[in-house]
Design brief:
The complex is a heterodimer of chains A (636) and B (152). Chain A is mostly beta strands. Chain A is built from 4 helices and 43 strands. Among the domains of chain A are: 164 residues, Collagenase (Catalytic Domain) (3-Layer(aba) Sandwich); 97 residues, no CATH class; 97 residues. Classes of the chains: A mainly beta (636), B mainly beta (152). The interface between A and B is large, with 110 and 79 residues.
């Protein structure tokens, strides 16, 4: 029995319309179907599609899922059913060598997986998941790189469970290896499983699905009272409760699953919240993100060949996409279930990288408290946690963060009553409490901006309640100064003061005046503060900010969304002074949106904006090639 | 927003198909494929599991992609709802699996690794990540890759 026992007839797409190179492509292949039996294969495939797309979260991701069926005619009908596996002894010459009775177990339906994968790759090169449908009413199936199932009632559930392993890297959540009567599976080894849906950890602060656990849920949520056996008690908490339930990953004790039940534990139940999120974060990146239009995109370069980009979706979900020179863009995925506050432009996700293997994130949550999460190479994403005692911020406030040292963070934001507040984190002492910075009050909608020109000094800027620009500083030797006004320039009350230090004795400030003019001033250690001036006649759209980047000490690049909503840039160079504003590659931004820019290497800029269609876009400038066109941010 | 097709940093992708029997693994197919690569590890990230690691000629790591279908056990499903799913261990595990990897021009080889890390000392206070613990990497096989012509 081999590929000589049949013929490939052809391939038909039966569900989905996503571009094949940007889709989760499922390929169903038939075995043991003769030429005249292809209708039965069609029926089985249709039933599988109905089952798959009727299963959450696939039901919500259907726009990114394609299903194909590969018709193969076999010489004989059915599959082998050897006596050694408790079968009838039937033998069938089929293309993929399907056989019941694997390892002496009749319902273990195996096949030639190499042939299945090779045929799937030839017929649908972009396939993600291959499943073999076997023409027999004997119940059977198996998992692995190729899921198999027969035409017996309910067997298509096997294919969906197996997709959990093969396509999404999910672990089995059942608490036994061989039904519960086995030996050697009382206690899970003391090593954290790599899969996202099982753990040995019940620490709420570090639990990998801690973001989904309610504060009122006990951890562990259910503990097995007798590790010599499977805990067969009914759930002690309401259905859908996420916590830690002991008994998972083939062990009675010492390993935990997120919910009482899940399709990775029992075939006939839905995926749990955590498995569903894993599936969403794997298929979701293939779809396009609709961003919250006025919330600025944040970007960090942990090292020159890598970018981490953060924003809020139109539903407020905190999402990220990353680019690496080796793999391109990863696609958008949600961060630990976070939701950023609306209000004004909506709270952005502020990101700081203290070192290459670590990120710290901050935002204002929907309860207007300040939240933080981190990503670390050794543990992945943490849960979101309330920062330093739960300050209530203005809805949609920005959290500004500076890392003066790799083991230190200074955090700034505006409280609900406009007070400018700060706290800090230090590796030696943890989080401080919030304190009011020198009595400062920000205008409604204004942000507070901070910069560290050197590790022992901070400069802060904001728009005060008189709509003028104010500053204060902190120095390790003298502590916090009083706030002082920088000239008499009137600013838009919701304007951000963008500041750049081209070197440690120079500050360049940019903001939007009350009449939408883009204005600037400077400070340097020799001459003190300069006068405010309009930058090359530039105007910003209502609500839009001006963004500044310094690629080197005698160069500044500015970006904004103009009053016609086009995305503009200008630059200053010494010698030469200010250039005129120009439209960047024809870009048009969402009204009131803000452009983000970063220079990860000297002769390169990466620019990010939300377009007029509320999609996230990027372009770049390179010293060798000039400006590229805009492209929609997603997966490469 | 006028658009161009995408960044010129798009590397393309390559499908690798491996066969295994017992401890022996062999690469039986490599095929360039136009598809988005999702699920690659965030660079510098380390966690337990099986991975395909793309390396250049100097054996520097270019990319790391999880492999979830390299199995030494088989899953047996119950005919009756509510009965347990079983795992069995065949005497000689055999099968095949596929993995999509970035098709970087510099890619010279792919290594299949099994990564395991001892239980970490986890933090108690938020804001401090767990102390890094060096994982143990077991090489299951290293395979040469055919040169890719027109990508990055």
């Amino acid at each position: 029995m081999s590929t000589a026992d049949g013929t490939i007839i052809g391939t038909t797409q039966i569900s989905g319309s996503a571009p094949a190179n940007r889709a989760f492509n499922v390929v169903l292949l038939g075995d043991g179907f003769q030429t005249g039996q292809q209708g039965a294969f069609n029926t089985a495939c249709t039933a599988f599609v109905t089952a798959l797309l009727g299963t959450a979260p696939f039901s919500d991701l259907a726009s990114a899922i394609n299903v194909f069926r590969v018709h193969v005619s076999s010489t004989d009908t059915g599959a082998d059913d050897p006596v050694s596996g408790g079968g009838t002894g039937a033998s069938a010459r089929t293309y993929f060598d399907a056989s019941f009775g694997g390892n002496g177990i009749r319902r273990l339906l195996i096949c030639n997986t190499s042939t299945v994968l090779s045929v799937a790759a030839a017929q649908v090169p972009q396939f993600t998941l291959a499943i073999l449908v076997v023409n027999s009413t004997i119940y059977g199936g198996s998992g692995g790189s190729v899921g198999t199932f027969s035409l017996a009632s309910g067997a298509s559930e096997i294919g969906i469970h197996e997709a959990g392993h093969t396509a999404f890297g999910l672990a089995d959540e059942y608490p036994y290896y061989a039904g519960g009567a086995e030996t050697g599976h009382d206690h899970h080894p003391a090593s954290e499983p790599g899969e996202p849906n099982v753990t040995i950890n019940t620490n709420r602060a570090t639990l990998k699905w801690g973001w989904a656990v309610a504060a009122s849920t006990a951890l562990p949520t259910m503990a097995n009272p007798n590790c010599a056996a499977v805990d067969s008690r009914a759930s002690t908490v309401p259905n859908g409760t996420v916590g830690t339930f002991e008994g998972a990953h083939y062990y009675h004790c010492g390993a935990y699953r997120p919910e009482y039940d899940c399709k990775m534990r029992n075939l006939s139940v839905p995926f749990c919240r955590i498995c569903a999120q894993v599936i969403i974060n794997r298929i979701g990146p293939l779809t396009t993100l609709t961003a919250r239009a006025r919330t600025p995109i944040s970007v960090v370069a942990r090292y020159p060949e890598h970018l981490d980009v953060f924003t809020a979706g139109s539903d407020g979900r905190t999402v990220t996409d990353w680019w690496d020179a080796s793999t391109g863009w990863s696609g958008w995925f949600q961060i630990s279930g976070g939701i950023a506050s609306p209000g004004g432009p909506g709270s952005p996700i502020t990101a700081v990288s203290r070192y290459a293997r670590h990120l710290d994130l901050f935002t204002v949550g929907t309860d207007n408290r300040i939240y933080s999460a981190w990503w670390d190479a050794s543990g992945g994403w943490s849960s979101w946690f309330v920062l330093a005692g739960g300050l209530i911020a203005r809805p949609g406030s920005t959290v500004n963060v500076v890392s003066r040292l790799s083991g230190h963070l200074d955090v700034f934001t505006t409280a609900a009553d406009g007070r400018i507040m700060s706290c800090w984190w230090d590796a030696a002492g943890g989080w401080s409490t919030w304190f009011h910075v020198s009595g400062g009050i920000a205008a409604a909608g204004a942000t507070v901006t901070a910069i560290a020109r050197y590790p022992f000094h901070l400069d802060l800027f904001t728009v005060g309640t008189d709509n003028r620009i104010w500053s204060c500083w902190w120095d390790e030797r003298s502590g916090w100064s009083s706030w002082f006004r920088i000239g008499s320039q009137l600013a838009r009350s919701d304007s951000t003061v963008n500041v750049v230090a081209r070197h440690r004795d120079q500050l360049d400030l940019f903001t939007v005046a009350s009449d939408q003019k883009i204005v600037s001033t400077w400070w340097n250690a020799l001459g003190g503060w300069g006068s405010w001036f309009q930058v090359s006649g530039g105007l910003a759209s209502p609500g839009s900010q001006v963004t500044a980047v310094s690629r080197y000490s005698n160069q500044l690049d500015l970006f904004t969304v103009g009053t016609d909503n086009r995305i503009y840039s200008t630059w200053w160079h010494d010698p030469g002074g200010w250039a005129g504003w120009f439209n960047v590659s024809g870009g048009i931004g969402a009204p009131g949106s803000t452009v983000t820019a970063i220079s990860r290497i000297t002769e390169h800029l990466d620019v990010f904006a939300v377009g007029s269609d509320s999609k996230a876009y990027s372009t770049w400038w390179d010293g060798r090639t000039g400006w590229a066109g805009w492209f929609q941010l997603g997966v490469s | 927003m006028p658009q161009e097709p995408g960044p010129d940093t798009n590397t393309g992708a390559m499908r690798l198909i491996f066969e295994y029997e017992g401890d022996a693994v062999r690469l039986i197919s490599q095929q360039p494929v136009d598809m988005a690569l999702t699920g690659a590890e965030t660079p510098l990230e380390s966690r337990n599991g099986h991975f395909a690691v793309i390396r250049d000629t100097a054996e520097r790591e270019i990319a790391r992609v999880p492999v979830s279908a390299l199995q030494s056990t088989l899953e047996v499903f119950p005919e009756t709802a509510g009965e347990p799913i079983l795992r069995i261990t065949p005497d000689t595990p055999r099968g095949a699996f596929t993995v999509i990897v970035p098709a970087a021009t510099a890619a010279a080889s792919v290594a299949l690794l099994s990564v395991s890390t001892p239980a970490p000392e986890r933090e108690v206070e938020p804001g401090l990540p767990p102390a890094p613990i060096e994982p143990t990497e077991t090489v299951l096989g290293v395979f040469s890759l055919e040169p890719q012509g027109d990508s990055q």
